[in-house]
From TrEMBL:
CDD domains per UniProt: BMC
Keywords from the UniProt entry: Bacterial microcompartment
Family matches, as Gene3D superfamilies: 3.30.70.1710
Organism, scientific name: Blautia obeum
Name of the protein in its database record: BMC domain protein
Top-level taxon in the UniProt lineage: Bacteria
Domain BMC: 9-94
Family affiliation: Belongs to the bacterial microcompartments protein family.
Length: 99
């Protein structure tokens, strides 16, 4: 089963506003071919944490679009991309998405 995820990535971002999360998700899904895995309310108040997956390039493009839309609307608590290695001998990569 692990071979199904080789070369794939997970993008995670957390915003201060649930409404802004859905606006950001809309931008992300229109920018790239990603699957939205989960949206969960955070314990910080009115915000939410969003998880999406796809190829590294798609997740990177989706995260860039989501954060660009979210930045003027709300506070961005965190954002990370975790990329699975293309081969079992490579380490996983962790990157912070650009704004």
């Amino acid at each position: 089963m692990a071979e199904n995820y080789n070369g794939m990535a997970v993008g995670i971002f957390e915003l201060d506003s649930l409404a802004a999360c859905f606006v950001a998700l809309d931008a992300a899904s229109k920018a790239a071919n990603v699957k939205i895995q989960n949206v969960e309310r955070n314990r910080l108040g009115a915000g939410a944490c969003v998880k999406m997956r796809g190829s590294v390039s798609d997740v990177t493009a989706a995260m860039d679009a989501a954060l660009k839309v979210a930045e003027p609307l709300t506070k961005i608590f965190s954002h990370t991309i975790i990329a699975s290695p293309a081969h079992d001998t490579e380490p996983a990569m962790y990157m912070t998405a650009g704004k």
